[in-house]
Structure prediction request, 456 residues.
Amino acid sequence: MNAFEKNQVKLIGQRLLAEANDLKRTVPTIERELGLPNGKFDSIKTGETELSETLNIAYCFAQSYPVKIGDILIDSDDTFNSMILMRSEQSHDSSRIYLRKNKDNQRTPYYEYRDTATSKFSPFKPEWIKELRFVNDSDPKNADVAYNNGHFLHQMTAVVGPVNFYWEINGEKYCEEMSTGDSNFISPFWKHSFASRNSSKNAYIIAVTFSGSVGRARSELYALGSDSVSNFAFDSEDKRKAIAQLIRQVLKNNMLNPNFLIKKLEANNVDIDLSALMNEEKPKSTSDLRALSDFLELPEDTFYLPTLHPNKEIVVKRYSETDSYLYDEELIDYKITQLAKSPYMPECNGFNIQILANDQNHASLLESTLHTFIYNYTDNPIHILWKHKQKLMSDIISSEDSVYFPPNIQHKFWSSNSDGAVFLFRAPSLIDLKVQKELSSFANKSRVLENSPWFD
Prediction:
């Protein structure tokens, strides 16, 4: 058994112990109920049990108790020294070309896809996509443009070269001519496509697709069945109706009859028009919504729902020097331009970063609680330095190389000629701001990754 497998066995051992604690069963109880020899759990926790046997015990555990097997099987860290670097040659080796119908109804090359750096723990599924279909106009109804059906993942896109971006909203088709540094954000299931405007120039996109909270809940949605999806969704076209639906849901979840709650509000001299709030056609008072949250001892933003705008489902942003800023005005290290951003995914960010620092002493350390993806879209090599367990590591990102960093890894860039540039994208995964806030309230944060029973 190699070190990777041994570490995986240890992680599964930790998860088995945590689930045993949740089930209020001691290790001897679990071993007795599963017919395991005494000390087997300790052998798993120390990584001494073979991986194949550990997996069999994990499956037996999930079959015997109300625990999902996916909650027990934990993969080991797949980064090397806290990062993943994919060279352009490795990316090229993953090349595959897909065909789509043209105006003559013939299937011809449309896109070339290549993988880029990512991790099994990352929310990203980033791809290098070259546009192989050429067009000589910007007509969104061009018969040579093959729209997709939309996809489940959100997409942040950065453009290199003369690329046309096409999308469709409620049956209406649109097109924007885009160039290097331009970007867009595409929400799930909106039809879209890309094409090249110039066959003599390199034209491609960096498509950083990623899952949000719905993606992280998808396994449960699959298990509950297709009918469950509509039961969890609020009305997306009528905000008044959606808030009324949300209020009814909260009252049901808290075993509160509306008539009883109205009487309770009156008895406590709380001036809230609950009937109006629950009426799907009436406007909602923001102060009443906050007062209701406070009275029910809920977070004050409980009844807040974002306003949905059709023109925000697809966001297009042009590169502009006037939008750029220096990260550190004294060091003059990075010139940063924000890429297209969605109001519905506020924690997700993309940046076009021009590397102005020409040595590491004039470059700021960057850090984020989010997952980070980096792509060098220039012809110039870029130096990168990062911290791995308090040790400084360094490498060079060549043209079309890409990098993945997990959260909280400090890193910096510099370029000998001060003319390198990267696209950098960030997105949360399971450990989002809501998780951070809950974790902060725990009495003992060091015990979250459990190594001991819940009593002595």
